[in-house]
Design a protein that fits this description.
The structure is a single chain. This protein has three helices and 13 strands; from the N terminus they run H-E-E-E-E-E-E-E-E-E-E-E-E-E-H-H. With about 210 residues, the chain is an alpha+beta fold. The strands form two sheets. Strands 1, 5, 6, 8, 9, 10 and 13 form a seven-stranded mixed sheet that branches. Strands 2, 3, 4, 7, 11 and 12 form a six-stranded mixed sheet that branches. The longest helix is centred in the N-terminal third of the chain and has 19 residues. The two termini are about 25 Å apart.
Length: about 210
């Protein structure tokens, strides 16, 4: 599970965003929504699934403005070219999404807005393989962001006590694809992250893609 003192969380968020530029120097690309009638093409695979916050056992949907939680989104790097892609916020009621995603091997760098630490996590070691398909949609599962609230006291080197509080996350993926084609989100515990991901990408991009997509 991932948790960190609030100032360090913002440092990690900055590191994640900075790596987006380090890998290839490209601007963020926004993934587009797919309409119900849209089908996969060689250029874009229609990807369908759900993503939801579940904190202390409580589903945080329906999402909305405060005091409700906002719907989650994520940023992922495509390993073929190092480009960062923004997957937009999910449906406010169900957490569902249906998107036009360029085929590739994706590494999730962050989930949720950095300005809201309780809803934000970096380098979750989640990956998504999006193969090229023709016609049919690809089901990627229900990505569950399982949070546990915490409040802890820690001591600085000066002897001053501080309180750290927030939400620790772990992840689960539920297959809800029925009989359709699927390629679920996966968690890879040994996946390099941060600077080590950049180094691995520069040294062995093909091997990294194989690790994600097989």
């Amino acid at each position: 599970m991932r948790a960190m003192h609030t100032p360090y969380r913002f440092f990690r968020a900055g590191l994640a965003i900075g790596l987006l530029a380090l890998l290839q120097g490209c601007a963020l690309t926004w993934i587009r929504h797919a309409a119900p009638q849209d089908a996969s093409t060689p250029e874009y695979t229609v990807v369908a699934g759900r993503m939801n916050y579940i904190v202390d056992g409580e589903l945080m949907a329906p999402y909305g403005s405060a005091p409700r939680w906002g719907p989650p989104n994520l940023i992922a790097l495509r390993m073929e070219d190092g480009n960062p892609f923004v997957f937009p916020q999910v449906d406010e009621v169900t957490g569902a999404f249906r998107l036009k995603v360029p085929p590739g091997a994706y590494v999730v760098t962050q989930i949720g807005p950095p300005i809201q630490p309780d809803r934000h996590t970096t380098w979750p070691r989640l990956v998504l393989c999006v193969p090229a398909t023709q016609g049919e949609a690809l089901h990627v599962g229900h990505l569950q962001l399982l949070g546990t609230r915490y409040r802890e006291t820690y001591t600085l080197s000066t002897g001053t006590e501080r309180v750290s509080q927030g939400v620790r996350y772990r992840f689960a993926v539920v297959d809800e694809g029925g009989d359709g084609r699927r390629s679920l989100f996966r968690e890879l515990p040994d996946l390099p992250i941060g600077q080590r991901l950049q180094e691995r990408w520069q040294q062995d991009k093909a091997g990294l893609i194989r690790q994600i997509c097989g």
